[in-house]
């Protein structure tokens, strides 16, 4: 306790309000008849949760009619479940869903599902309810996940490093060996399952030499051990694969996706994998992207590449998750025509309809790369005959690297709610593109880059756990509000003290806007140190080959992505979105510099000039960062000291670092523009 290791599964002691807490009589006994591993795990979660939340040792319900919590599948022979749930309810529960009902008549709270994993999800939900309840609600709900695939991508390398990892090293590997720490893996699987994650890719999408062999007999037994642990918690294991695998070790002379030998090589690999891991999820592929090999080498396109792998996995029910993060990373900065933002759409839109039914395209939420602020990728809505998942980044690569607090759920919400206009007048928000309901896709869902490592508290910054938690909750149910998720997480992590809940929730909800204000004004990105991406460096990427520019000169800044005079990117959107972004007048302030190059004196909708906006937000942002620390400090003594201290330390660092951001950005633009701050504050 106090380390953060238990995360949101620690269930701090609950204070029920008075003698009306009638649920307590049910909570003390558990009735389960099925032996299945996943159901046994559910029982274990239940006992563990109740022990810490209520301090009770849950008994096995012995008497046939006694008050209890009953858990089980509808067909599993649990008569309490059979008595509580009617046909109609049972029909409403999908393959991963569950029903919870309190039945006074049957003296129980019943958690029923059509599958064992549904029961486990239901038990986690019951624990959440118990944690947040007053002890007296009428539980009665049927809950199904909105998204089929709810995935986490690890960028862990076999040597133990994690690409863009900010919470220590991998807990899967070290020094090119598999770590023997099943307890940690089990606890990780418990955490992920508790928020509904059902797919995890365990290695980096940049697949290096050793990791290329993960699909070979040398490593499959170890991979299969991980899959065994995941399976109990309803999680399928996926591997990132190297498109050029057949070349490694000189096995074949080519990786051409249309070459029959290459195709049969992959079919052989797939068979080997499924022999070891019968429920293997499939492949995640980064191809022709940032120097990774891909079909372009052979004059083939991405549909050729993905379909070849799809064919190999198809007989086993496996999926190919093919990333759309494809762009020219060797661009000449002098070339003002090439626009990285256009790349994903330009590459993939023409391929719509050509992918096999077990291929899913994985599309980053924005057209660039997980910046603090970006528009939504125009591929959402544009691809109408292709399975797709959205990719978020829980790891805070560009959002403070888990040293700054930046609660990303509000950002994800904005993206998911964005109307693509793909159906004209009718609403077509991204959330319904990715849940598959708009185009009736066979597969659909969300994926995100993990933010965990072997740090004791998993995420480095304790408050970054809220992003991990929130991602899962949102993937399950995009209708949840950012606020409700924050509150729920805070309650599960710190307990029910209203002062704590209030302050933590407020810190989380303010944090993205604060981070944006001292780092990334008006949709401009990339003003960071190259390579490691931490800290301010306005020109760090300005003369680089990565397609990442702000074009600031003495008169103005921003990227002209209009059709009229720029790269034409704005035309990748549909209807009113295309018009809004194209128009200097209508473009929302927060994305102005993403779409337009304007003078520093350009007046925003807010009434401020661009330069004054930069000064103001940077001064305010640094102040607000300092206030985060001050409000956290009001919580001293209201929670486990270990938890308090670890957050305080990070917030101290953030407050200091925010000043560095403020001064570097303000000074840079003051020197470029020569325009004074209206308030005459100190700029260097
Ligand atoms: O955000 C960028 C990162 C790379 C990463 C790449 C990707 C795994 O800087 O480190 O590589 O995106 O998403 O493939």
What do these coordinates show?
The mean pLDDT is 96. By secondary structure, the protein is α/β, with parallel strands linked by helices. The protein is 37% helix and 11% strand. It has helices at residues 23-27, 37-54, 79-84, 87-92, 116-132, 182-194, 209-212, 220-232, 260-276, 302-313, 343-348, 379-382, 409-417, 430-434, 465-476, 482-494, 498-519, 575-582, 592-595, 610-633, 641-673; strands spanning 29-31, 59-60, 68-73, 98-103, 108-113, 140-143, 149-153, 173-174, 177-178, 199-201, 236-241, 282-285, 319-323, 359-364, 387-393, 444-449, 556-557, 598-599. An 8-stranded parallel barrel has the order 7-10-11-12-13-14-15-16. Helix 10 (302-313) links the parallel strand 12 (282-285) and strand 13. Bound molecules: 4-O-methyl-beta-D-glucopyranuronic acid (GCW). Residues 155, 163-164, 205-206, 286, 290, 325, 369-370, 397 line the site of 4-O-methyl-beta-D-glucopyranuronic acid. Keywords: Carbohydrate metabolism, Glycosidase, Hydrolase, Polysaccharide degradation, Xylan degradation. One of its GO terms (biological process) is glucuronoxylan catabolic process. Residues 136-458 form the Glycosyl hydrolase family 67 catalytic domain.
């Amino acid at each position: 306790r106090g380390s953060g290791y238990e995360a949101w599964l620690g269930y701090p002691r609950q204070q029920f309000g008075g003698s009306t807490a009638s649920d307590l009589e049910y909570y003390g006994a558990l009735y389960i008849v099925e032996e299945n591993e996943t159901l046994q795990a559910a029982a274990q979660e239940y006992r563990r949760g109740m022990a810490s939340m209520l301090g009770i040792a849950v008994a096995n319900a012995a008497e046939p009619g006694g008050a209890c919590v009953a858990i089980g599948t509808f067909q599993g022979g649990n008569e309490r479940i059979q008595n509580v749930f009617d046909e109609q309810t049972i029909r409403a529960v999908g393959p991963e869903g569950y029903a919870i009902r309190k039945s006074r008549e049957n003296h129980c709270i019943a958690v029923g599902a059509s599958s064992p994993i549904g029961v486990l999800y239901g038990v986690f939900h019951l624990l959440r309810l118990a944690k947040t309840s007053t002890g007296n609600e009428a539980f009665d709900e049927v809950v199904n996940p909105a998204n089929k695939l709810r995935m986490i991508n690890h960028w862990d390398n076999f040597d133990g490093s994690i690409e863009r990892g900010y919470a220590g090293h991998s807990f899967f590997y070290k020094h090119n060996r598999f770590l023997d720490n099943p307890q940690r893996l089990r606890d990780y699987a418990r955490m992920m399952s508790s928020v509904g994650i059902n797919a995890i890719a365990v290695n980096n999408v940049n697949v290096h030499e050793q990791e290329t062999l993960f699909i070979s007999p040398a490593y499959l037994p170890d991979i299969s051990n991980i899959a065994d642990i995941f399976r109990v918690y309803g999680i399928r294991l996926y591997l990132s694969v190297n498109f050029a695998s057949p070349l490694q070790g000189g096995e074949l002379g080519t990786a051409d996706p249309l070459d029959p030998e290459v195709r049969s090589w992959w079919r052989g690999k797939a068979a080997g994998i499924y022999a070891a891991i019968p429920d293997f999820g499939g492949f995640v592929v980064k191809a022709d992207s940032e120097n990774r090999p891909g079909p372009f080498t052979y004059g083939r396109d991405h549909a050729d590449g993905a379909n070849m792998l799809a064919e190999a996995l198809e007989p086993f029910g496996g999926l190919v998750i093919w990333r759309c993060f494809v762009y020219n990373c060797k661009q000449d900065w002098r070339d003002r025509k090439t626009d990285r933002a256009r790349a994903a759409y330009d590459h993939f839109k023409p391929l719509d309809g050509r992918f096999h039914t077990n291929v899913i395209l994985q599309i980053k939420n924005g057209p660039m790369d997980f910046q603090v602020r970006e528009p939504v990728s125009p591929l959402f809505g544009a691809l109408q005959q292709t399975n797709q998942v959205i990719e978020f980044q829980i790891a805070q690569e560009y959002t403070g690297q888990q040293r700054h607090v930046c609660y990303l759920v509000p950002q994800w919400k904005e993206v998911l709610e964005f109307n693509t206009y793909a159906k004209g007048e009718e609403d077509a928000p991204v959330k319904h593109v990715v849940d598959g309901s708009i185009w009736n896709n066979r597969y659909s869902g969300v994926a995100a880059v993990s933010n965990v490592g072997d740090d004791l508290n998993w995420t480095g910054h304790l408050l970054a756990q809220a992003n991990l938690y929130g991602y899962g909750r949102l993937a399950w149910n995009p209708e949840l509000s950012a606020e409700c998720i924050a509150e729920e997480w805070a309650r599960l992590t710190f307990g029910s003290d209203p002062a704590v809940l209030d302050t933590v929730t407020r810190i989380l909800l303010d944090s993205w806007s604060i981070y944006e204000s001292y780092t990334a004004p008006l949709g401009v990105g990339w003003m960071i140190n190259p390579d490691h991406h931490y800290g301010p460096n306005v020109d760090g990427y300005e003369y680089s080959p990565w397609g990442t520019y702000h074009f600031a000169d003495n008169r103005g800044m921003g990227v002209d992505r209009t059709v009229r005079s720029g790269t034409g990117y704005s035309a990748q959107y549909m209807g009113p979105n295309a018009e809004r972004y194209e128009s200097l007048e209508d473009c929302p302030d927060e994305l102005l510099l993403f779409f337009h190059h304007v003078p520093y004196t350009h007046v925003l909708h807010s009434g401020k000039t661009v330069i004054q906006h930069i000064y103001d937000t940077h001064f305010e942002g640094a102040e607000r960062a300092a206030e985060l620390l001050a409000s956290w400090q009001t919580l001293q003594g209201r929670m486990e000291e270990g938890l308090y201290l670890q957050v305080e330390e990070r917030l101290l660092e953030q407050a200091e670092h925010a000043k560095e951001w403020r001064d570097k950005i303000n000074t840079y633009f003051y020197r470029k523009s020569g325009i004074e701050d209206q308030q005459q504050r100190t700029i260097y």
